[in-house]
Design brief:
Strand 14 and strand 15 form a beta hairpin. The protein is α+β, with helices and mostly antiparallel strands and 521 residues long.
Length: 521
């Protein structure tokens, strides 16, 4: 930007920028997919997110008054989604810059943020992001540097949790954290009306307390610091107790007279979101679109609860082309900037068909043709304008592609490889590969080559040895009528496979380079 477009200096600056970006990407996870377009869209989106920032400083968008103004820089979604994407794609150095920057410049000593309003669930998500950085890098220095503010965020949520426990024990909202779930609540006529026990406030805190508690305990054991071990134990205990209260609150809040059964976004709500908002556009359930997607991303719901949310939203046209909508069920606004949360819950419980529909709908309809620019939301009605570009929407496809290829279950800890890879990716002659995948047990890689015409598929996995590792599950969704009939691991017969689930399971002790031959008939 220092040089005029078209000048020689401008040209050389572009080449230098390209070189830096290529070098950065080469340090992360690498993929080779049969669907080249999806792979290119993923890389393009990661780069677009990188160049949207001003150095390490976050930017939600690029144009002034269209999310590029400084007033949007502290938005929690930008920090959480941007940092998560870099971690998921193995770009841990960038993630470190982002975390260090945000905790330095956008979080106060009392845990509050420099923004126009808090999103209570995203506070819990911040704890998960910070914990995930430690889990993948074991960089205790960064967490200890910012411990005062990280702990302040934790205590802010714990104080809200203590307030919730002062409710009568039989109240549907007992123990559920109240607060805004959307920063834009500050723009409403009566912002105090939106201080509600959104379930997402609690589900994100459950995961955040648990993940960060694990991190502090691990650091404490490594550095022989009893204070960190004790604090981590406190957070983990609060996570477990809040999880118990969550299930009680959900059971008391289910609207069983609706068709289908509705799990409202707010504990104790008396009617579904579509009914409440149709009557009163300012009803707090207007923010259900965010709460539902945060609830599903948290990993804290049961399979039945995820199904209940999905079934009700689908039945009431709040999911279109597989993509959840924003701003109520009659808007036709694809919620690109939050859609990853919905997809995460689908994949956690193996709703592969719905997951792939969302992924490909986002790639086809959320992003612009040719330039692959993702607006915050996109209205699918002809002639309607879209929202401005924003980073979280841009990163929806990279996140879904990463999880499709490598997904660590937030509850069991299992590492799934190719859990949702499309069937046609395993057509005869196709190769699916990924390397440098960041996981809790280290960098993982795999290469799958299909010889399905000869009734076999070959796979090679690179799995680091690690303490307290969980099992690895490889799924091969082979096309056509052939079914998995046998497996050989390093040339020897292997019994731990499920033909119905199309999976091969490797127990945690299995590590190193592992060769698999999957036979079909």
């Amino acid at each position: 930007r220092r040089e005029s477009p078209g000048s020689a200096g401008f040209y050389w600056e572009l080449l230098a920028l390209r070189s830096r970006l290529e070098s950065t990407l080469s340090s992360g996870m690498q993929i080779d997919l049969p669907d080249k377009r999806l792979g290119n869209l993923t890389r393009h989106s990661l780069v677009r997110a990188m160049i949207t920032r001003m150095g390490a400083f976050p930017k939600y968008g690029v144009l002034d008054r269209n999310y590029g103004g400084a007033e949007h820089d502290g938005f929690q979604d930008t920090f959480n989604v941007d940092t998560t994407a870099m971690l998921e794609w193995g770009l841990s150095d960038l993630a470190r810059f982002y975390i260090d920057n945000y905790l330095t410049y956008f979080v106060r000593d009392d845990g509050s943020i420099l923004y126009r309003g808090p999103e209570t669930g995203q506070y819990g998500r911040m704890l998960t992001v910070i914990a995930e950085y430690y889990r993948l890098t074991h960089d205790a220095q960064l967490l200890l540097k910012h411990r005062r503010r990280i702990d302040a965020i934790s205590r802010l949520l714990l104080n809200l949790r203590n307030d919730a426990k002062k409710l009568p024990a039989d109240d549907p909202a007992y123990g559920m954290i109240s607060g805004w779930c959307e920063a834009d609540s500050c723009l409403e006529l009566d912002p105090s009306r939106y201080v509600q026990p959104y379930f997402s406030n609690s589900t994100e805190a459950i995961r955040g307390f648990g993940d960060l508690g694990d991190a502090w305990q691990n650091i404490g054991r490594r550095q022989k610091r009893s204070d960190l071990i004790e604090w981590g134990s406190t957070l983990r205990r609060e996570s477990a107790e809040l999880a118990d209260d969550l299930q009680t609150a959900i059971g008391r809040s289910l609207l069983k007279d609706s068709t289908p059964v509705c799990l409202p976004a707010i504990a104790g709500a008396k009617e579904p979101f579509d009914v409440a908002v149709a009557r009163d556009i300012h009803d707090p359930q207007f923010r259900a679109y965010r709460a539902y997607m945060e609830m599903m991303y948290s990993g804290c719901l049961t399979r039945g609860e995820v199904e209940t949310i999905r079934n009700y939203r689908e039945a009431h046209h709040d999911i279109v082309l597989g993509v959840p909508l924003a701003y109520s069920n009659d808007t036709h606004e694809l919620a690109g900037f939050l859609s990853y949360g919905h997809a995460y819950g689908l994949l956690q419980f193996d709703f592969v068909r719905e997951y792939l529909l969302e992924l490909y709908s986002l790639s086809a309809h959320q992003y612009t043709r040719g330039t692959w620019t993702a607006p915050e939301t996109r209205c699918i009605e002809p002639g309607k304008t879209t929202a401005p570009y924003c980073v979280p929407a841009q990163l929806s496809v990279p996140l879904l592609v990463r999880w499709m290829l490598a997904f660590e279950d937030p509850v069991s800890g299992e590492l799934w490889l190719c859990k949702a890879a499309p069937r046609d990716w395993f057509a005869d002659g196709c190769v699916v590969s990924a390397s440098g995948i960041p996981t809790r047990r280290g960098r993982v890689g795999f290469r799958v080559e299909s010889h399905i015409a000869d009734s076999r598929i070959e796979a090679t996995l690179d799995i680091p040895a690690a303490e307290n590792a969980h099992e690895t599950v490889l799924r091969i969704r082979a096309p056509g009528p052939k079914r998995m009939s046998g497996v050989r691991v390093d040339g020897k017969p292997w019994r731990q496979f499920d033909a119905g689930g199309e999976t091969v399971t490797l127990p945690a002790p299995v590590s190193g380079r592992v060769s698999l031959t999957i036979e079909y008939r």
